Amino acid sequence: MKKIITILLLVLFWSLPLYAGQSDVRNLRIWSAPDHVRLVFDTDSLVEHKIFTLDKPNRLVLDLKNTRLSTQLPQPESNNRFIKRLRSAERNKRDVRVVFDLNMAVKEKSFLLEPNRQYGHRLVVDLYDKKESSKRRTGPVKTARKSGNRDVVIAVDPGHGGEDPGARGKYGTYEKDVVLAIARKLVKMIDQKPGMRGVLIRDGDYYLGLRKRMLKARKHHADLFISIHADAFKDSRVRGSSVYTLSRRGASNEAAKWLAERENSADLVGGVLFEGKGKGKGEDLFTVLLDLSQTGTQQASSTAADRVFRQLKKLGKTHKKRVQQAGFMVLKSPDIPSLLVETAFISNPDEERRLKNPAHQRKVAKALLAGISDYFNYQPPPGTWLAAKQEKEAPRRHTISRGETLIAIARQYAVSLNRLRRTNELKNDTIRIGQVLQIPGG
After folding, report:
1. Which residues form a coiled coil (predicted)?
2. Residue 104: is its pLDDT beyond 60?
3. What is the pLDDT of the chain when averaged over all its residues?
4. What percent of the chain clears pLDDT 70, i.e. is strictly above it?
5. 18-22, 313-317, 386-390 — which is least confidently predicted?
6. Cβ-defined contacts of 20-26 (< 8 Å, 24+)
7. Interval 324-329 mean pLDDT
8. Which partner for 128 in 107, 119, 173, 344 could form a disulfide, CB atoms 3.0-4.6 Å apart?
9. 281 has pLDDT over 70
10. What are the φ and ψ backbone dihedral angles of 406, each rounded to 5 degrees?
């Protein structure tokens, strides 16, 4: 008996070096986006890997060194554009090889992610159509706007997505899900307005980099970019909506700075900060050109944000009394007025419940639409249907004479007093002799 125990102990002792220090693959998640498929391997430590493709037939091979599988890898869904199936096998008693049988030739990209608030170590593999990737390299983004009485285009961007879920509420609600629901409702409402067209930047549960969101808005010649989020804070009592515009000089307060840093860190999920070491000269030049070209855009962003904020105030409590500023990466398009809306604090249980409610989601979308419409009615881009409509209504001008009052002028031109105030951005009914008022049509 002692001899048997001794042999077993020796076998165990000899096998310890075999598994000591091995990484463990605990799970695989597959996310399908319109232009790529993302595979995320959850591991208990950093994994050394090698990846390459084979043809005839098309395959992708992923070798994981000093690694073992502690779970059965899931198969992709039948409608997966890139992957037919996947299989795995042990190699050299220490390594694992995963083979993906593909539907087409792919361009692969892989990188490692460090642990964050929700996940541990991860190995990420992105697959792109090889033919489409070549086309994108040779085809520049065209930013020229269409001529004629075109629709104004509003790019609606639901924050986060896929591997980047955003904030999470007490009852398990993810930010990425509720903001997508609100964004879809908003785009549907926009499309029902004459002279307006909505573009959904993310229409599914997948990761999309911050710069890609900006580029997609430019590709669609957007006249306004609105990014929708749901805030979170360590104190669950904090509540209310907020509207942000880009700040180059620093955040308007410490909370805004913290929020911008958290939102900008979403690009860590895309491996952006793991592919290079620090900024290069090209990025420094880009920043300088961005500063020079953004002055007019920021002014328009501020006007649009003010109009949206006014409507959100009607819907309920706002977190601050005015529009805030912070350095959000997603708002840095040099030629598109951009704003970011934090619809509520998902960390507040009451607001989390409302955010999940489709009726409340419609109310939020309706408030956003009212602000957007107000902005474009006040400042329609040249060459749009809304601008042509405004010109057709022939806005008139009236020069104030002695003894005139604002209410008398409104009656004279058969327009409402509120509309006359709003058109001329008057805070009260005080007017002065010689002042020129713009009279809204109809």
Report:
1. none
2. yes
3. 81
4. 80
5. 18-22
6. 21/66, 22/66, 22/67, 22/68, 22/94, 23/47, 23/64, 23/66, 23/67, 23/68, 24/67, 24/68, 24/70, 25/64, 25/67, 25/68, 25/69, 25/70, 25/71, 25/73, 25/96, 26/70, 26/71
7. 81
8. 107
9. no
10. -65, -40
Q: pLDDT at residue 352 above 60?
A: yes
Q: Are 336 and 222 in contact (CB under 8 A)?
A: yes
Residue 290: CB atoms within 10 Å: 14
Element (H, E) at 256: helix 254-264
Closest CA to 209 of 165, 170, 266, 260: 266
CB 419 within 8 Å of CB 374: no
Length of the chain: 442
CA distance 140 to 143: 9
In the chain, what are the domain boundaries? 23-131, 152-267+287-378, 395-439
- What is residue 151's DSSP assignment? P
Residues contacting residue 222 through CB under 8 Å, at least 6 positions apart: 153, 154, 155, 199, 336
The residue type of 96 is V
CATH code for the structural domain at 23-131: 2.60.40.3500
Does position 335 have pLDDT exceeding 70, yes or no?
yes
Tokens linked to 353 = 């419940």
Q: With contact defined as beta carbons under 8 Å apart, do 125 and 109 qualify?
A: yes
Nearest-angstrom CA–CA distance, 37 and 137: 19
> pLDDT (tens digit, 9 = 90+) per residue, 161-188?
988 888 999 999 999 999 999 999 999 9
The dihedral built from the CA positions of residue 132, 133, 134 and 135, taken in this order, carries a sign that is: positive
SS3 398: strand
Q: Are strands 224-231 and 338-345 parallel, antiparallel or unpaired?
A: parallel
- When pLDDT is averaged across residues 384-404 and rounded to a whole number, the result is 81
CATH topology of domain 395-439: Membrane-bound Lytic Murein Transglycosylase D; Chain A (3.10.350)
Pick the CATH number of 152-267+287-378 from 3.90.110.10, 3.40.630.40, 3.30.365.10, 3.30.56.10: 3.40.630.40
